Structures are given as C-alpha cells and as structure tokens.
Hints:
Elements: H1 2-11, H2 13-20, E1 34-38, H3 43-46, H4 54-61, E2 64-67, H5 74-77, E3 78-83, E4 124-130, H6 133-136, H7 140-145, E5 156-160, E6 165-168, H8 176-181, E7 184-190, E8 201-203, E9 209-211, E10 216-225, E11 241-245, E12 270-275, E13 289-296, H9 298-305, E14 312-315, E15 331-338, E16 341-352, E17 364-368, H10 373-378
Antiparallel strand pairs: 1-3, 2-3, 4-5, 4-7, 5-6, 6-11, 7-10, 8-9, 10-11, 12-13, 12-15, 13-14, 14-17, 15-16, 16-17
Amino acid sequence: MCSERRLLILLLLPLIVVVQAAALLAFANCTPEERCITLKRCPQILDNIKAYNVAQRKMIGHKQCALKSQHNTLLDRVYVCCPEEPIVAQTGNILPIIGECGVTLPSFRIVGGTKAGLYEFPWLALIRHEKPVALQLRTLRDLLKLFVVKPTSFDCGGALINTRYVLTAAHCVASRRLIESGTVVASVRLGEWNTETAPDCFNEVNGREFCAPSHLDIEVEKRIVHDGYVPDSRDHFNDIALLRLKRSVSYANNIQPICLPDSQRLHNSHFQIAGWGHTDLDRASPVMLKATIMGRGVDECRARYGPMRDTQLCAGGTDHRDTCNGDSGSPLMATISVGGREFVYLAGITSYGPRPCGLQDWPSVYTRTGAFTEWIVMHLEA
Length: 382
C-alpha cells in the first residue's frame, strides 16, 4: 500500500510543480462538460494516471482549476476539471468538443523571431508523397536508387481534426502532376517542430534541456477529395481533402486536434499561419515558422485572381507575410474566446497565392473551412 502511494506521488510530480507555482499561474476554466472537483474524487483521471505517458501526465497540470492549501494531502488540495463521463478512446467519426480541441499548451517560445514555439501548433501535419515502387522500376539505375537513403521531404501541410483524420487541400492529393506521375499521399507526420532533430529539444531558462515526445509518421489509409474539385483549375473551387490515417493517434503535448467552425463565417480580422514552407531565402525551413496576417475582403482577391466564391477566404498581402511553397494545405487559424478560454479554430486551408510569395498587396486565397463542415462530417468513418 505504501509503495503504491509513493508511486502515485511520483506520477503526480507535474501537478506538484503546478501547486508550487500556483501563485504565478491562472487556473483552467472548466467546460460545461466538466466539473471542478478534487483530484481524489475524479476517477476518470486518477485511475488512468499509471497508464499515462509523460506527456499525458504533464497535461493533467493544465486541467487544474483550483488549489485549496488547507487540506492535508495532495489529492485533496488539487482540484481538476473532471469530465462528466469516463474518458474513452475517440472513434474516427467523432469530432472533439470545445475543451478537447484547439488548446495550445504553454510553449517554449523563440524570442524575437518568427519561429513557432514548441507545442504552439500541435495540430500541424506534414504530408509526404511517394510513387509506388512498381512505377519507379524502369531501369537498373532505378533499382539501385531504391537502396540510396534519401532525406524525407514534405510538399504539403495539413491539420489534425480528430484521432483519425487530417484535413488538407485537394490539390495536395489530386493535382494533374500527381495523377500523371502516379504519385500518392503516402504518410503524415504529426508532432513535428524541427525536421532536422529527433526528438525536438529546447533549453529552458534555467539551462536544463527539455525534449518533446517524438514525432509520429503514420501511413495514410484513405484519401478523400471533394467531388467538386477540378484538378489544376484556375479558380481552385472546393480545394479540400480528408486523409484517413491507418491507425488512431493518442493525443500528447505535441499532438492535439484543432477545432472546426460550426458556421461558415468566423468574424476575425487577424489570423495566424504556420508551417515549414519556403522562407524569403527561397528554401524550406527546418523549424516551424509562424506569422499573423490580416483578413481581406473577397473583392480584393477577385481583383487579383478573378472569380471567387463565398466558400473561399482572402487574407494576407501585407508586410511580406504569406504562406509559400510547401505550405499548401496548411491551416489558416483563428483564435476564438469561449467561456473565458481561448481556442484555435481552423478558419481556412491554404489554397493558392501570388508567385513569388509575399508580394505586397497580393493576398492569398484559402478554402473557407466552415463552408465544408457538413461535407467533412459526412465523410468521417469510425
């Protein structure tokens, strides 16, 4: 009995840190589906602590909603946002509710730069393409090439929306170039920050090195392109696709789903973009980059590109901030306040823009996610 209690205290060390720093931290606001009760009275969390990995145990600290120091034991002092129902594995046809999506954990940020913080955008995905082996074997030289180790390259991005699906642009899945060459979306990488390091590590203020959980490379089981998308069309209407992963993912600090809007319009004037696309030096960045861009009227994009629909969104075009080559399919993000807490929503999907990237007064065009919410839900499978 004593040994089990000691083990439980060790597993709760992330919470103890939160308790010691309580004076400096803001406690979480529980969602309508949660109750703020003592950790001791929350079996949904307490009974699973032993099975949690390190990242999941650290996440418990971010569920703390109160601290009452007059109690004797840690389990009685710490109050957590406890789910009303037991925690169960989410199936692929269910979208996460508010409080389970769009949550950015405290990040280790890069000071004075455009680099994203570790854990800042845990829903971002990298998409890898490949040709089936049979299509590559035309000569003996082709056969020998298979034994040469090549660095993994990613040509598109996407956003994780639940444990089984990534949302991206249709042109990342079904462009004429991809179709004619026999190239397919093969896998998705989740939980990445720096493509040149594994795991991703960061030096804290006290000099101690902190490392994130390793990224995951997961094969794609099914590719679902909107049936209204016409490959390589000038207008890029219906530029949206779903990627079904071969297996479900477990959420961790570096892997979380983004929220989907339940209506067509998000009334935001500012959006965030992030990805590993080309920089102003015209080369892909190994570290995730971010920028804040302004929303623009659709008429401004029509003046530059021609016909547009309400299912598209116009943003950027100032201060040379833009998505670029390699960012196709990446999310345009809007931060929304709900019940006193901020959540990140997938406002749009990177579709197309000016060439070269970042031209002043040339905004980029995004697929408006809210216009396709019904289509997304209709194509999710358990």
